[in-house]
Amino acid sequence: MEDVQNRPDTRGIALDAVGISQLRYPVSVAARDRGKQETVADFTLTADLPDTVKGTHLSRFVQLVHEYAGDLSVAALTRMAQDLTERLDSTYAQVETQFPFFVERAAPVTGATSLLECQARLTATARRTCVDAVIGVSVPVTSVCPCSKAISDYGAHNQRGRIAIDARLSSVEEQSAGALRADELIELAERCASSPVYPLLKRPDERFVTMAAHDNPVFVEDMVRNGARALLEDSRISAFRIQATNDESIHNHMAFARVEWPRPGAVSSGAGELQ
Amino acid sequence: MEDVQNRPDTRGIALDAVGISQLRYPVSVAARDRGKQETVADFTLTADLPDTVKGTHLSRFVQLVHEYAGDLSVAALTRMAQDLTERLDSTYAQVETQFPFFVERAAPVTGATSLLECQARLTATARRTCVDAVIGVSVPVTSVCPCSKAISDYGAHNQRGRIAIDARLSSVEEQSAGALRADELIELAERCASSPVYPLLKRPDERFVTMAAHDNPVFVEDMVRNGARALLEDSRISAFRIQATNDESIHNHMAFARVEWPRPGAVSSGAGELQ
Amino acid sequence: MEDVQNRPDTRGIALDAVGISQLRYPVSVAARDRGKQETVADFTLTADLPDTVKGTHLSRFVQLVHEYAGDLSVAALTRMAQDLTERLDSTYAQVETQFPFFVERAAPVTGATSLLECQARLTATARRTCVDAVIGVSVPVTSVCPCSKAISDYGAHNQRGRIAIDARLSSVEEQSAGALRADELIELAERCASSPVYPLLKRPDERFVTMAAHDNPVFVEDMVRNGARALLEDSRISAFRIQATNDESIHNHMAFARVEWPRPGAVSSGAGELQ
Amino acid sequence: MEDVQNRPDTRGIALDAVGISQLRYPVSVAARDRGKQETVADFTLTADLPDTVKGTHLSRFVQLVHEYAGDLSVAALTRMAQDLTERLDSTYAQVETQFPFFVERAAPVTGATSLLECQARLTATARRTCVDAVIGVSVPVTSVCPCSKAISDYGAHNQRGRIAIDARLSSVEEQSAGALRADELIELAERCASSPVYPLLKRPDERFVTMAAHDNPVFVEDMVRNGARALLEDSRISAFRIQATNDESIHNHMAFARVEWPRPGAVSSGAGELQ
Fold this sequence. Notes:
Order of helices and strands of chain A: EEHHEEEHEHEHHEE
Number of domains of chain A: 1
CATH architecture of chain A: Roll
Shape of chain A: elongated
Oligomer: homotetramer
Number of strands of chain A: 9
CATH superfamily of chain A: Urate Oxidase
Helix content of chain A: 10-25%
Radius of gyration of chain A: 22 Å
Largest sheet of chain A: 9 strands, antiparallel
Number of helices of chain A: 6
Strand content of chain A: 35-45%
């Protein structure tokens, strides 16, 4: 049976990325407060392709996900990306995965517990001589508008928002005690906002959250600056991007702010910048 | 060339609906305050199919959209549905279309104008002896929580929400002066909430909207009841459904309320119920 | 602290459904071939509200999901719906949940195994004197167009499609051996198409699937009729809806067909019709 | 009334991008074959913010869209971005807009005409001393798998796919005769695939498209290489990214390939790279 993918190609175009996306698979991921967490992940896997070859073998990408889905972590994803370069004899491979990630939250007054859905992302990139890994989260929060509060005699518009953080790890190897985890980034994000959100709030909790948020108004600009200050102080992180998005309650569009470090245009080794 | 669709079928299953969906087309629709409105509509067209025929001819559905897209209205959609039954020799046909619909809004203090995106829907259904038509809208609004306001010393959580109304017309024919229009349903929806939303608000407007909303707190239950009261009084409407959905700012899920009239389980001729 | 929701209401509008939607929670569901399956479910819960009361207590809906998420099944969902009517003293409650559901598939020639993502739905409705339950699935399949094959000298357009089945159970109680399961509906759907789809196919498998599908061309009309015939013969099912949707490869829109049994307009007790 | 946004900030974090997103507005855009095209655009506008200022004034972003929406083009978008830097006194501003863009297509045998929905994107970026502009399109196509065709005795799996091209203009100024237009990029994309797709095909057209596509099988890799070859030869383009995505008909995931020029890691002035 002919291997059509292995036919030579003469167009002279090497491809940056060939692969699969939107492959959803049940996975088990490491989580701090509940041991392992079973969830459903969306995978994108890519590798480069030299200009001399017609196509890549996509079934190998699916096979890789099937093999690794049972125990997902930064370390496992890094091995996946390295494994992919070896199986395909490519110089570059990237494995990205995104999944709902749940954290337990206790209501601030009654202590009633429930599970809050955040989104988590893991990305590992392997090149001939190096690997790197990025942990990301998207966290729902609530924000009260400082302008609306200051200029009004009473009330203040507020809304649900999301804080997204992507953090590149300083060292991929050091994935033991003290390693950066999605749980930590989620808590960091929650501290940047007017208040965390909770699935389950009784009336005394609702009263508490309403007033606590009103006491702590923030713009999207404030949320990313609060987050950036905390991320800059964490030596486990070599680069980051933080973005806050507000579902403005008085508009039908979004407000957002974003900062990356190092800055997108900064002179750097290239290894420090987020994609 | 064989007409495969016309082959006989022996499985004995008549089909309720065969057709196309997600066909997007540029359309021109009637609008009150800006004459005609150019927008992009998503079409779903269906017809029934007798048990004796293998398939329908879907190119005729596309042809119909191409012919009618230039002048869309309730009357035109009704003709489309009747036309479809004739071209396919079917006993039932339905044409549904949904599109962004923009209304001009002036900021409440400065009067600065901008265009607010709502969604509008038109559905026409033709049977052998009757046609009917439904106009629908989805309208972004803001709502302040009455519970949060009452139990807190200051502040109150509020959020963006949406009110969706679908109204069946008492008379399809009477599409002249005084006919029900999407613009009217949008304004009706806005009056049910704590405040309308606006794309463009200057600071004096933001102050006004913040306080006006705080003065008028509503649950999702209140919004649908306010709307239902107004809809019940409009003799041009023979049946309706109204639903309010809040993007709760203190949660990561939605709150919603819905009411239909006549009630879903009510004894009726069948012609009065919404699908 | 005032219970604002318990305030009386004088607008005279009883509400059909008040509740929460888009609450996502990690769940464990019964599955045939892999014991229990851990996945992430999207919940919608509603109850009716009498015209005399201002609002419902939505935290009770979240509490219910938190309590039941660990062991989800038709029987559990039915109890949830009944429990909800009791906690809220309502006459009607409905619990709907939808989640990715994975089935193991072996490639047809090499036997390489992988997990196929389908969607499953469970809906339970409780009224004063009865409960009912619906199991639903959405299944990706491939279909070859019979018309394209018949009128062309070679080739035939084909595409990914989805078959969605919702089946009301004849008896909610009999949830023991022989009960209807999502796995069965998925296999039924796969048999209606030109071929199942597989996450992982080696070249001998791809050859097999290509030719098997070409040998078995089906329209969307054929897929729903094939499914309807099988569903009609299953005494565990009292009502069903089946819909097939094709992502047409030669168009930029969808083709679809749908049939319900009993027919939507049929005279019935009301209990037999799907919503 | 206090201008809260103008308060000083001491956290020392300059922000890369502050702005609004998901603002939808009716727009009129230049189009080759139908003069002007009325459509609905989704806008994202951002500007940087110095570390010394608390917030930006988002109403100015909305005001800008309101002013420019009536006549959208590359030249207009470039002026918008420059205008935004001046109104906000910022060093950087970017205006991105995406909208459905329709092109008329004649069926290949019968000549029946219909309008095909593509997506188009325009992005303009203004810095102190330079502006640049990117035109992008996403185009639905059909692709027949070369491997499936070669290894099977008959048939070949095929599917709908999308080709996305983003092209940076060599010169923003030269927006006169001979300027690059979205229409051209759409036609370029269609020539890379096994066949274009059409909303409206009669049976003789369907026969033609089926066989033409079968005669011209392409992988996602082939589609991007075909496109890259054509884009490299166009002197109006200084940088590009092309990506092809297939909704694989035998799988439930996507296959894709991508290439950028200059390569993402290439040494360059920075001005040549796409974001």
